[in-house]
Design goal:
The protein is built from 10 helices and 2 strands, in the order H-H-H-H-H-H-H-H-H-H-E-E. The chain is mainly alpha-helical. Strands 1-2 form a two-stranded antiparallel ribbon. It starts with 22 loop residues before the first helix and ends in a 5-residue tail after the last strand.
Length: 280
């Protein structure tokens, strides 16, 4: 049943993307008792500190093909989500300042390159997470800039009909990544743009079912190989988590044959000498 009850979205409460009001408190408790989680946390902070010391500024630069901004979007997603997490876990304001610097940079771009929509999707996920998780902490001018960019560069471009966004019909990682990024933006800005948000969330649920059936059924094997499994499935899990958190259901998407078995796929793709069929 794909009937969506939008009244379930709590319009006066953030965060609503994968985390909720008590999530970071629970993670802090886990940090004190789980050596495995503590190791993951420390490694993440170390990686972030290294990135911060690099001094590299995010710029509106295309790759050698002249078509893709994806490497910038991916760097932004990495920096923004890691530093948002770091600030929520440590309260160290240098991480908040770093998040705001990254948001100011990417939300000041002329666009997020909607002609290659993966670029928009990854950027939208990063900006949405920071906007949502740090809803009460971001400087008002940074928050306003993020709202404007998310709407103009992501939500609006997905529904204005100017470009043929065929990721809705694609049966590969594009469907998963683009839907996840747009649903993140739609949920983050729901109270400001409910009409657009409802359109995008409805289209995501409707368009994701067929591709998932082709990509994972019947046994969890992934059509694009090992590398894209990691990419597409990560965004798929993020999409399902956001739906489940805000609507109490993922509308049966996780029950599609093969999906809950797909972790086994990676076991069969790994050997003592590396991986088999890395991508495509």
């Amino acid at each position: 049943d794909h009937t969506i009850d939008f009244s379930k979205i709590s319009q006066d409460q953030h965060p609503r993307l994968m985390m909720h009001a008590g999530s970071f408190g629970k993670l802090k408790e886990k940090l004190a008792v789980s050596s495995t989680f503590a190791l993951l946390h420390d490694r993440l902070i170390e990686a972030l500190e290294k990135e911060m010391k690099s001094g590299n500024v995010l710029k509106y630069e295309f790759d050698a093909s002249g078509r893709r901004l994806l490497q910038v979007s991916r760097r932004a997603l990495y920096r923004i989500t890691h530093s948002a997490y770091a600030y929520k876990m440590t309260s160290d304001r240098k991480y908040l300042s770093y998040v705001e610097d990254q948001l100011n940079a990417v939300c000041g771009f002329p666009n997020w390159n909607e002609v290659h929509y993966l670029d928009v999707a990854e950027m939208a996920l990063g900006v949405s997470v920071a906007y949502d998780w740090l809803y009460d902490e971001l400087a008002p001018e940074v928050k306003a800039k993020a709202e404007k960019a998310l709407y103009e560069y992501a939500l609006r471009t997905a529904i204005d009909g100017k470009y043929n966004h065929n990721f809705y019909e694609m049966t590969n990682n594009w469907n998963q990544v683009c839907n996840a990024g747009l649903v993140a933006g739609a949920l983050a800005l729901y109270e400001k743009y409910p009409k657009e948000a409802q359109i995008l969330i409805s289209k995501a649920v409707e368009s994701n079912k067929g591709p998932m059936e082709l990509m994972y059924s019947p046994d969890g094997n992934y059509v694009e190989g090992y590398n894209y499994w990691g990419y597409g499935t990560t965004f798929q899990v993020i999409l399902l988590k956001m739906l489940e958190q805000n609507f109490g259901t993922d509308f049966g998407l996780s029950e599609i044959p093969g999906f809950m078995r797909t972790g086994d796929f990676m076991l069969f793709m790994e050997g003592i000498d590396g991986s088999f069929n890395h991508s495509d």
